[in-house]
Amino acid sequence: MTIPYGRQTISEADVQAVADVLRSDFLTQGPVVPAFESAIANYCGARHALAVNSATSALHIACLALKVGIGDVVWTTPITFVASANCAVYCGADVDFVDIDPATYNMSVERLEEKLIQAEVAGKLPKVVIPVHLCGQPCEMEAIHALSQKYGFSIIEDASHAIGGRYKGEPIGNCRYSDITVFSFHPVKIITTGEGGMVLTNDVKLASHMERLRSHGITRDPSQMTKTPDGPWYYQQIELGFNYRMTDIQAALGLSQLKNLDKFVARRHVLADSYNELLKDCAVTTPWQHKDGYSGLHLYVIRLHLDPIKVRHREVFERLRVAGIGVNLHYIPVYRQPFYERRGYNPDDFPAAEKYYSEAISLPMYPELTESQQKEIVHRLITPIGHQTLF
Ligand SMILES: *Cc1c(COP(=O)(O)O)cnc(C)c1O
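A: This is the predicted complex of the input protein with pyridoxal-5'-phosphate.
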């Protein structure tokens, strides 16, 4: 049996919650989506939360609401899923990357500041910066926010990995240091709705704009219309939007999953502690934890110390896969994707991301993983067939 790198945990209560919606009057645009939205807003301490059909959609409407368009530049980290960059391209903007911090693997604040100084001279400051809380580990949001004040950019936190985590004692998603925060509810993430995402903000204008964008650019609010309504049927499309709505079926699953969120994250911490212990004498770097943060621990990424022993990253990876252990690599630097390569980036500009890519392996991490599976995983990692020890 293959152990995946991540998977959902579904309870009987989750199944029941979904079945209840299937037997109700509304499969979509009913009461459960707003109930899920307020539950997430309350949990995170944000004023507004809007459910959408994916974090990719969430990032798209977040960029649009922040007026990203042709001629603008958006910066993100190269070590992320492609969606963190694609959202800017959807809007016609250019994307650039800020190298990662070699210890945290998140966007480096030092590199960000250097790049801002250069960009100011060149007259090419970013409109929006998208820090990603990689693996659930919070970015240095206070420092990034201070830079946004100085250089005049907006911030979208891509918290796809990070729901349930905390930064400086407060929930990730409260948007204290950003304009908008985005969550993903894909099944490998911390809680799931099948497919789904959420945008959070404390700004009522951004919220109502994103609400319109997720539903065709249509409003039923007379104060947003160009004239008084023709009658009770009336609505207006006042801009080009999309159908990015979440269904009530999905929201019911999300609302039910949310009840277990703290338990899921606590379990991930137990598993991380157990990996840390099992790996303590191995030639690997275990994940650094932010002293001001509580990670959602979506991923448990180790880095192999390869230089002294001449074992290739790829061999270790393949050996684990052959043994039925679904290790993964999060992520291929986005600028190495052919779509982005064609847009002309130089890997030499991102030495920390390049080194990370040559050493990183995500070990399986999900609440139902067992301690005995972890022992098996670590055993396979350190003991190649026919040899005693690898490292
Ligand atoms: C998963 C993920 C996304 C996209 O989420 P979807 O809900 O699948 O669209 C975006 N950014 C990051 C960092 C992710 O891990």
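The mean pLDDT is 95. The first helix runs from residue 12 to 22.
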